[in-house]
Amino acid sequence: MKLDPTPLYSAIVAFVVLNAVIGMVTYVTLLERKFAARMQSRIGPYRVGPHGLLQPIADALKLMMKEDVVPRLADRGVYNLAPVVFLIPCMLIFATVPFAPGLGIADLNIGILFFLAVSAMEIVGLFMGGWGSNNKYALISAMRAVNQIISYDLPFIFISLVPVVLAGSLKLSDIAAAQAGLWYVFYFPLGTVAFAAYIVATLAAENRVPFDILEAESELIAGFRVEYSGMKFALIQLGEYAHMIGTSFLGALLFLGAWSGPGPAWMGPLWFLGKAMFVFLLVTWIRWSFVRIRVDQILAISWKLLLPASLLLLMATALMIVLRGGSGA
Amino acid sequence: MSDPEARKVIEMGYAGSERLTMNMGPQHPSAHGVFRAILSLEGETVVDIDAVIGYLHRCHEKLAETLTYTQYPSIASKTDYVAAMTSELAYVRAAELVGKIEVPKRAQYLRVIAAELQRIASHCLWLGTWTLDMGGALGGGATIFLYCIREREWVLDLFEALVGARLLYGFHQVGGTRYDIPAGWDKKVRDTIALVERRLDEYEDMLESNAFFQVRTQGVGVVSRELAQEIGFSGPLIRGSGVGYDIRRAEPYSSYEDFDFKVPVETAGDCYARYRVRMAEFRESIKIVRQALDGLPAGPISSRPGVKSVGQVRIAKGEAYARVEGARGEVGCYLIADGSAKPYRMKWRGASFSNLSVLPHILIGCKIADVVAIMGSVDPVFGEVDR
Predict the structure, then answer these.
(1) ipTM value for the complex
(2) Of the CATH numbers 2.40.50.140, 1.10.645.10, 3.40.50.300, 3.40.50.720, which one belongs to the domain with range B61-355+365-386?
(3) Number of H helices, E strands in chain A
(4) What pLDDT is attached to residue A5?
(5) Looking at the complex, does the CB of residue B146 fall below 8 Å from at least one CB of chain A?
(6) How far is B155 from chain A (nearest CA, A)?
(7) Of B2, B212, B368, which is closest to A210 when you measure between CB atoms?
(8) N or C: which end of chain B has fewer CB within 10 A?
(9) A138 in contact with B, Cβ within 8 Å
(10) What is the pLDDT of residues B311-370, one digit of tens each?
(11) Among candidates B34, B41, B136, which has minimal Cα distance to A139?
């Protein structure tokens, strides 16, 4: 499986991963819709293809064929650029994720740092979309987005650093390898609490209910993307789900032991995918059972609760490592 | 490129003032129909609200003057179309008061059963749409909404078996009811309300132990007892503000004095108190339906023979005001009869209309998210507001 990381190899892997992500996004939407439908005592998409399996394709085709409406008073440059600016960081986060030992685009030695930095960049596209639409709902949503992302990226980063401290490496493959014996989620109590906090921070970072104040369709209709239609809307949707899948993979990697699992080595990526989908469904489950909270309450939770808690957790982890006299669990 | 003049207006608007004027509705997911709120915002906080109604005006009062006493009950159900049974009841009761028409005991009990089932159905829709307002169509709110719709469907199935229609019934007529219950219907009703009762516990578990639901509703949209009385609140809203006023108890009609039920009262006056009152009302309605089914007397369902033509019912000269406790509060009908087959004048008192007038008093200082939560807790039906 180990090939030389030549530019050609990287390009091929990048191409494959990019398409795999797009394919995954289309089918993750179906997974979420089916899952939500079952929660709500419905059946979900069922008409297009057997058990609705072709529904995502039909949705994608519909979005491609839809008319692309640009509001007359929109800031055209910003408006048109926003979906792309939003999508790029959401796709880039997959660059450093290793899907199996040696299987990934670039297993950087600062992998997690890259992941966190790039994933925080999505706010730029988001704000551009909200501002460029020249719509009051979109503007309020963009303001909320900036508030929320700034508030929640800090706890998100601190919590993600707990496994880093435990493993003693910023390299994602090292963190995964360090969990061969014990997944960090079972590393009680630090790892378990950190995983729970990670899920909360993920919800906020991905703008899912109960933290979806920027979409908030019952108040702000669709928030920053209220004016987008057709393919631009699809790009934003793609970015959002790609980000969600990315953070699910990161959660599976940081806390659930990535590709470790019974079976031969080639099963590794499948295990990883399964665990990522488990994290995704956990987030989805929360999403479909809570009501949205208010913007001031969201900020209060972040600054008064989650941020101190995550800092404390990080310090406790560091203290424990020091007391044990070394790095690694 | 875009129109520079219009651009300047908008940008000057932003720059010249810290306030943002935002038009919410009439086309808005949380407008509960066609409500328009022109909000002045400072950041997220509402500093001023201009409530605009009238988008669903259908000339109901004028229409009543052109339709006979036989025809209009079916139209009356279109005022509050979420609780059509009680709207009809208000109209036929007004006609009966003017004409001093007796209603047989069986018909009175059937009216009570229909009204209370309607209250259950209406509160189901309220709970669903309210959580939808707070939780969003893509979140937990939608889950509760779909559960509630499922329960409402069962009640509507009962009405379908009774009347043949699911939304607008025409069940009541002057002098009684138009239909008697079909065979086996009472068993179906008992099964349904038992099921709804079980599900209510599930909803309460799901919502009341949910911290996010509590922070969204407790202390939000507080209506004081004085304000509630001043603006003419009624129904679950005034009971949520600490006034134990219920027309079924204060001025019993249609044999309500026969039944043993509580009037739930909460004192906090916030959205959560209104929620608690309605959840308790679900259970009281279920109790009343059970009692009415148990004690359903035999006999005719109408004191008047079945009509053969629409102009057959004539009401003697006179006027009267009839009021019933609808799902949203006091539904009143003031009727002046001139001895012909049509009323001379008719006036509706819609519960939602009076309840809705609280919004400018309590929305100031709230966040945008609270606007929809408070709106939902008031539970307006715009058919009844605009008529």
Answers:
(1) 0.80
(2) 1.10.645.10
(3) 12, 0
(4) 61
(5) yes
(6) 18
(7) B212
(8) N
(9) no
(10) 777 888 889 999 999 888 899 999 998 888 888 999 988 888 888 888 888 888 888 888
(11) B41
